[in-house]
Amino acid sequence: MKEVIRIDHLSFKYHDGHEALRDISLVITDGETVGLIGPNGAGKSTLMLQLNGILRSNGSVQVFGLPTEGKSVKTIRNRVGLVFQDPNDQLFSPTVFDDVAFGPINMGFPEEEVRQRVSKALGWVGMSGYESRPSHHLSMGEKKRIAIATVLSMDPEILVLDEPTSNLDPRGKWAFTELLKELRMTKIIATHDLEVVRALCRRTVLLDEGRVVADGPTDRILSDTDLLEAHGLAAPRKMPAELHPC
User: Fold this and answer.
1) How far apart are CA 183 and CA 75, in angstroms?
2) Do residues 41 and 14 touch, judged by C-beta distance below 8 A?
3) Strands 211-217 and 203-208, bridge-based pairing
4) pLDDT tens digits, 105-145
5) 22 three-state secondary structure
6) Nearest one of 20, 21, 37, 26 to 232, comparing CA atoms
7) Each residue of 166-225: pLDDT tens digit?
8) CA torsion, ordered 146, 38, 244, 117, to nearest 10 deg
């Protein structure tokens, strides 16, 4: 399979001296859906922010063979879509249309293509017809869909999601999981929800204290209760029968 992300010996310290990542090495290939799990403070969010140059650190991060620094950053950010845990961090415009159009406009696309991209992205997330609605009046589940649409409108090749099903009720969680399942690009999903990881991801990476402590098939890692408990996690319940990893 084609390699799309390569991380070699990546370490990162915050300004207060906290070492969030310690000698991380990973390779992710085209089309994979990878679950990134671990307890609070494990380094999941810090690692995700390395993938489009928001944070920079010691070691090497390459996306599509380009370093996540210097002149490559703009190109990488157009190809790697990052969806934050709280959709309110991404929705700031008067209407849904304006939020979803923001990226394509800043990429310099002409008006007609911007409209086409907005329409396509909203269709992907099941939110066609919401263009004139104020984003801040939507439900949490609707906001999460619009937040993904703001990224999909830029046609990314990699989608990186931080706790995508947090603050959703069970019905909303599984509906949102089905939406993610249908998106056929490379996906990296950082989450505490191991049910969602089991439903979506064939591969899982377990982080703790900034280190990779396990990396392999999701079924093997999530069935190892001793491993999960040693790193502050509980084995997931059985997933709905209609959901299968993509």
Assistant:
1) 21
2) no
3) antiparallel
4) 998 999 999 999 999 999 999 999 999 999 999 999 999 99
5) strand
6) 37
7) 888 988 899 989 999 999 899 999 999 999 999 999 999 999 999 999 999 999 999 999
8) 20
